[in-house]
Amino acid sequence: MSVDQHTTDSTSRPRVEGDREQEIFEATLEVLAEAGYDRLTMDAVAAAAKASKATLYRRWRSKADLVVAALQHHKGSHLMLSPTGTLRGDLIDLFCGPAGPLAARQVDFFASVVTALHRDPEFATRFRAQVLAPKIAASRAIYERAVARGEIRDDVDLDLVAPMLAGVVLHRVLVLGEPPTRELVERVIDQLVLPAVRTAPPSLPAPTDREVPS
Questions:
Q1: pLDDT digits over 145-180, tens only?
Q2: CA angle, 49 as apex, 47 and 96 as ends, to 5°?
Q3: Which CATH class, in words, describes the domain spanning 16-72?
Q4: CA angle, residues 63, 67, 69, in degrees to nearest 5
Q5: Distance separating alpha carbons of residues 149 and 190, to the nearest angstrom
Q6: Where are the domains of the chain?
Q7: Residue 101 near residue 110, CB atoms below 8 Å
Q8: What pTM does this model have?
Q9: CA 132, CA 157: separation in Å to the nearest integer?
């Protein structure tokens, strides 16, 4: 290929950036929320974004690439929250703020990708590394600050405890149909999370003679 031809080909390729990129991301998220990841197609996104499918494939190699990129760039996804000084306050800010699981459309997005996490290895790998990992890190950092302040026990298994709030809240919202509200988040924090990390583990009573197998 000649230099002139290479230059012509490069300059003729559509550049997807800025406002146009954001429009495509918004179209992707609309299709995702309506159809779910399994039924989302590049054709549907192209139609919603008023773009050609070729334009999408020049920028994103697969629908997994496109959907993960759209979720990463969703408004507020990289919002940095200022520490409140308490574990309770930090958790409420994280979960009820603009980037939290209960923010606008976040529940719909998560529900739309649940089955794909089991069925599509490419998507699952990208989603866990690029979308979930930063959220998990932010949640863990909140607990690490609480440990440093002496607010919770230093023997707490953070890998086990940090996902507790999201797990319980999303279960109640997605499985049980409970409305995703701040009040729900506060109930889970006050009745499950804080007692689990602040209270010493209960000691088991010593077995009596009757309880010892013969």
A1: 999 999 999 899 999 999 999 999 999 999 999 998
A2: 125
A3: mainly alpha
A4: 115
A5: 19
A6: 16-72, 87-198
A7: yes
A8: 0.77
A9: 19
Tens digit of each residue's pLDDT (9 = 90 or more) over 63-111 = 999 999 999 888 555 556 788 999 999 999 998 887 677 776 788 899 9
Question: What does CATH list as the number for 87-198?
Answer: 1.10.357.10
DSSP string, the chain: --HHHHHHHHHHSPP--HHHHHHHHHHHHHHHHHH-TTT--HHHHHHHHT--HHHHHHH-SSHHHHHHHHHHTSTTTTPPPPP-SSHHHHHHHHHHSTTSTTSTTHHHHHHHHHHHHHH-HHHHHHHIIIIIHHHHHHHHHHHHHHHHHTSS-TT--HHHHTTHHHHHHHIIIIIS-----HHHHHHHIIIIIHHHHHSPPPPPPPP-GGGS--
Residue located via tokens 């590049």: 42
Tokens found for residue 201: 């583990």
